Every structure is written in C-alpha cells, then in structure tokens.
From TrEMBL:
Keywords: Metal-binding, Transferase, Ubl conjugation pathway, Zinc, Zinc-finger
Domain RING-type: 209-264
Residues that span the membrane, as ranges: none
Entry-linked SUPFAM superfamilies: FYVE/PHD zinc finger (SSF57903)
The protein's annotated pathway: Protein modification; protein ubiquitination
Subcellular location: Nucleus
Natural source organism: Anopheles merus
Domain PHD-type residue range list: 77-194
InterPro entries named among the record's database cross-references: EPHD (IPR034732), PHD-type_Zinc_Finger (IPR051188), PHF7/G2E3_ePHD (IPR042013), Znf_FYVE_PHD (IPR011011), Znf_RING (IPR001841), Znf_RING/FYVE/PHD (IPR013083)
One Pfam family cited in the UniProt record for this chain: zf-HC5HC2H
Protein name as annotated: PHD-type domain-containing protein
GO molecular function: zinc ion binding
GO cellular component, one term: nucleus
C-alpha cells in the first residue's frame, strides 16, 4: 500500500478519534447544613474560598463602633505584629480610631487570648469591651517576648501549664496545634500541654465533615493539625461526627445563643466547642437580627391567603404560630390542624428539617 495513503488514513483516523483528554475534576456542590445560613446555599468548602472567608460578622455590629477590615491587608496587628486576615481562624481584624486621629488595629482573638490584656470595659467601650488604655499598657508585658514557634517578638499568649512559660502568637499557635479555650478564664495551652479533651486521637480516613460534606485532613498530610477537627459525641444518642474547625466557627458566628450540636441539637455541645477553641458570640442568631424577622408576631393577623375566619378581636384567640419559628400565624381552621403543636409554616416545612423537629 502507498505510504502516502497510509499517512492520509492515519490523519483521518486521528481526526475521527482524537486522543483522549484528561477529565476535568468535577466539583460536587452539596447542600450546606448550616455553616453559611443564607450566605451561600451550596458548598464545596464554601467557607474556605476567598469570596466567603470574610462573610462573618461580630465586631461589625454597629454597637462596637469599629471598622472591620474585610480583605487582605499589609496593615499589622498592633498586638502580634502580624498581618494575616482570616476571621474564621484569628477573629475579625478590627480598627479603632481614638484621640481623633490615632488608630489601633488588632485581631479580635489576639485580644481574647492575650494573657496580660484585661477586659475591663463594657460591651461598647474601646474595642468590644477592651479599653484602649489597657491594650496600650499591655504592650510592655509581651512586646519583647519571643514566640516559641516563629522566634519573632510580641508574643502575647502564654501557656497556662504551670512551669511551662512558652509564649506564642495566637496565629502561630493555631498552626502548631495550640488551643485557647474561649470560656471561663480563657486559658491557652501550647502543643505539649493540651487539655485531655484536645488529645483524643481522631481517625479521619474515609470520613467527611458533617457540615460541608468535604474530605477531612489526613494524618499523613505534612501540615496535619489535630485541632483543625472538632468531634461531636454529646451523649449516647449523638452520632460520632467529625467537623472542620472553620465550619464550626462559622456556625458559631451565625448561631450565637442558639449554637448547639449540628447533629443532635444538644446545647451541651457549647462547652466542648469552647474548650477546643471555638469562639461563640453571646448574642442573638443571625436570622433573628434580620430586619422584620418577627413582624408576623406583632401583626397578630392570620397570614392565610384565603382566611376562613376573619381578623376580628375574638378570632385572634384562635391564632397559632409555627412550632419551629413561631411565625406565619394562622387560625387552626385555616392551617388545617387540630393541635397547635402540629403546625409548621411553609418556610420550615422542609423534608430534611422536619426529621429533626
């Protein structure tokens, strides 16, 4: 056979059957179980990307009168002298103007974890309860102290273990398996003196986070940090779940007083979460702070499209609210239930949610 024909046939063959190409990795977007609460409905580690990292709020509350830096910055924290900005890990990076033109910047968790930084003010005073004068005077206590992990100065956190004396930046501690307990006396511990609850071995092989459904870090990974995983096992009825620490922290930011185990809804989970380094704001939940969140409760009128009773004074006594959120008031006759405890509004009548009620 002619060589030219063979080459033509080969070319045609390649045109008809092109070489196989590498498959693009498919990103599975799974429903997020609660770490975002309205910020993003589906998650592929939604809390980890740059666009949603800063979508948390605590210090941004107008009550504090603070400016919160919502993007990467070259400005340094006046406490640790580092400029990393990740509110899920280090707390919000805040800026306070005092004496007209002077500014002080700090990671909020640097303030909370600083061994020699007292919190003597009321909630709106200074920086979320930390008086400016107390923060400024605390510099002398740690400015010359060297971080055990990075060897740089201004290490405000000291291990609470008697006789240890190790000091570190909160940011360095986060990356080196240290922990600050956000409760009680707000004690911090280095990686050599972790409390017993933080030293329980965790097996992550084949496991996924129960909030974002993404893979968990493996023990074999070079940057594996056991404290980046939070366990759930509140009681005998709670499934032994594993959660990304950042997922739990975002959940805590949005839940506030209503923070509880995302698997069994046990509020006792708050104690364990605080002991392993989760900051839980003492305030109402994000969904309760939305404008008009409780407007239906004040109207005291039936919200049914075709009300069968009317909104007279006597009819108001027959109104029932959703057993979950208390909203969308309806007459028992309009919502079709005989027992008020059986009524679910349209917003809460979700198949995946009803199983948890």
């Amino acid at each position: 056979m002619n060589v030219a024909l063979l080459s033509i046939g080969f070319i045609k063959h390649r045109r008809l059957y092109p070489a196989p190409q590498k498959k693009k990795k498919k990103i599975n977007l799974r429903p997020c179980l609660g770490c975002c609460f309205g910020e993003q409905k589906y998650s592929s580690r939604c809390h980890m990307n740059e666009t949603t990292r800063f979508n948390v709020s605590y210090c941004s509350d107008p009550l504090f009168k603070l400016r919160v830096l919502k993007q990467a910055t070259v400005e340094k924290c006046d406490i640790c002298l580092l400029n990393e900005n990740n509110p899920l890990r280090y707390g919000e990076f805040v800026e306070k103007v005092y004496k007209t033109q002077r500014k002080i910047r700090a990671h909020y968790f640097c303030l909370l974890s600083g061994t020699n930084i007292p919190q003597n003010g009321s909630t709106p005073a200074g920086i979320a309860g930390f008086k400016i004068s107390d923060v400024l005077s605390s510099y002398a206590e740690y400015r010359e102290k060297q971080c055990y992990y990075c060897r740089h100065p201004s290490a405000p956190v000291e291990c609470a273990q008697a006789g240890c004396g190790r000091r570190f930046h909160y940011i360095c501690g986060y990356s080196n398996s240290c922990v600050t307990q956000f409760g009680g006396e707000f004690r911090s511990y280095c990686d050599q003196h972790l409390p017993e609850g933080c030293r329980v071995p965790v097996t992550t092989k084949g496991r996924r986070c129960s909030i974002c459904f993404e893979d968990l870090p493996q023990v074999t990974e070079p940057d594996y940090n056991p404290l980046s995983i939070v366990r759930t096992h509140c009681d005998s009825e709670c499934p032994p779940g594993l959660l990304h620490r950042e997922c739990v922290q975002r959940f805590a930011y949005t839940s506030g007083y209503n923070f509880k185990c995302p698997l069994c809804w046990n509020k006792a989970f708050r104690v364990h979460a605080a002991e392993v380094g989760i900051f839980i704001p003492q305030r109402e939940s994000a969904w309760e702070r939305e404008p008009g969140a409780f407007k239906d409760l004040h109207k005291r009128k039936c919200t049914a499209v075709d009300c069968k009773v009317g909104n007279g004074r006597n009819a108001a006594n027959q109104l029932v609210g959703c057993k979950v959120c208390g909203g969308q008031l309806m007459h028992r006759q309009c919502c079709g239930v005989s027992d008020a405890d059986d009524y679910l509004c349209s917003g809460c009548r979700d198949e995946s949610f009803v199983r948890l009620v």
